[in-house]
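Service request form, structural biology core

Requester: graduate student, group of Dr. S.
Request type: structure prediction, single chain
Budget code: on file
Notes: please return the result as structure tokens.

Sequence provided:
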Amino acid sequence: MDDSNNPIVQGAGDKDEVGTPRHHGSLRSQWNLSSTQQFDAWVRGSAGYDRVNAPYVNLVHVPGYVTLDLRYAHKVNKDLELAITGRNLVGANRTEFVSDYIPSVPVEIVPSLLLSARWKF
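Core staff response, request fulfilled:
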């Protein structure tokens, strides 16, 4: 069955197409600095998009962004690893997602810092 001429199917596809960024990229690197130390970096970016949120007829603008995550881990012994991770370190707070289906608050991403410990037993 060919749905290319069906206006309902075509309209849904057009809505999905304009509701996502056209371009995005990611570059990840993981280094073992020594047998007890690791350093990881992740740069990623996305083009923004604009669309009309149909039932409520308002323009939704999600701007493009480039951001950076960094992680440093130290293996204290064979069973314990301590790490510090910084997420979304480059750029200001940004809107990442806006719902099409229900009126809701857009998801906003902020820089964060995480300290973690991993214990194997």
